[in-house]
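User: Design a sequence. Structure:
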């Protein structure tokens, strides 16, 4: 066969052992990436689960229709705060605990709560950046305040 500029050169396939080595390498890399990703997701999930369950005995007490006190306990001394706002993803207001000293018992006063209610999340100074707190909805209930 004559090679001309219009005729593609003949390709000689590599022996089977070369192809199988590449496939094994690609498969090992893929398995490693998947294992690493699952490990990171599992670690972050475990971290969030552990921190969410470290806030013990959470209690919300309304003192008046637009004011509440949030109490909770942590296993270690820290400064606590509450973020609150109109939606789960929009909690722009922050209220810090009444005491400036780290402690295991926290009390935070929330003022100007809308009558429609608000979403809150508990935070501790020791929480890391990978912590996504649980967000709960609170609303004044006149029947329980009588």
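Assistant: Done.
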């Amino acid at each position: 066969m004559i090679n001309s500029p219009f005729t593609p050169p003949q390709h000689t396939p590599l022996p089977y052992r070369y192809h199988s080595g590449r496939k094994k390498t690609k498969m090992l890399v893929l398995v490693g990436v998947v294992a690493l990703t699952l490990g990171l997701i599992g670690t972050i999930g475990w971290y969030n689960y552990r921190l969410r369950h470290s806030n013990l005995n959470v209690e919300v007490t309304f003192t008046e229709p637009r004011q509440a006190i949030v109490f909770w306990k942590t296993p270690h001394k820290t400064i606590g705060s509450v973020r609150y706002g109109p939606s789960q993803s929009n909690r722009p207001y922050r209220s810090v605990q009444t005491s400036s000293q780290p402690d295991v018992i926290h009390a935070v006063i929330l003022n100007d709560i809308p009558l429609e209610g608000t979403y809150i999340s508990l935070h501790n100074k020791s929480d890391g950046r990978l912590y996504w707190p649980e967000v709960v909805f609170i609303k004044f209930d006149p029947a329980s305040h009588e």
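Strands lie at 56-64, 67-78, 80-85, 93-96, 103-110, 118-124, 136-138. The chain has two helices and seven strands.
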